[in-house]
Amino acid sequence: MQDFFRQFLSALQDTSLLEYIAVVSGIASVWLSRKENILVYPVGLPGTIIYVYLSAKADLYGEASVNLYYTLASIYGWILWSRRNGQDEQLLQITKSSAVGWRNQLIFFLLFYVAIYCALVFLKHAFYSNTIPWADAFASATAYTGMWLMARKKVESWYWWLATDLASVPLYYHKGFALTSVYYFILFLMALSGLAEWKKKAGRAMAT
Fold first, then answer.
1. Which residues contact 72 (CB under 8 A, 6 or more apart)?
2. Of 178, 203, 75, 61, which Cα lies nearest the Cα of 130?
């Protein structure tokens, strides 16, 4: 255990300023999403852009694609969350997915997982032997699904974030991003809180 902490502290000392900025941006963004605050999108954008660069640099091309997707989906979500009715109330409300909605998100996940996995297997054999296709594809596909559902304010987005965060902790630590590994552990805990918060809001919306 002592060796682990020594290695971890050493890795933190080697952490770049860009990674620190991305981590702070990401944590603030998740806190804002838990509060259903539209600032989640502009606050999170710097972090997603930085992680495109950091992930590609570490041969985590699935994660790089995810953060590029985050950047584009943030703009999409920003637009959806901005829409208001004549009483200046947000049109988009937090809701739970129907059985059809669950089916669609599972299909969405599987399509992205297969596509990313196959692409990463090719990259691993052709160019980047350090790539971990199955783990990177899982973390990436769950994140794609979570971001899509969050833009639509679906409670289930948090289940997908939990899966992403849990998979990303060992993945990024293995790649030498110690701070990012801790960051995803923090996001995992925050996602549990976010799930509980959104469930309450969805329940209140159904009761009215």
1. none
2. 61
> How many CB atoms neighbour CB 46 within 10 A?
18
Q: Two tokens at 149?
A: 């559902």
Angle at 154 between CA 151 and CA 157, to 5 degrees: 80
Mean pLDDT in residue range 121-148: 81
Residue 191 — pLDDT band, cuts 50, 70, 90?
A: very high
Q: What whole-number distance in Å separates Cα of residue 159 and Cα of residue 192?
A: 8
- In this structure, the chain runs to a length of 208
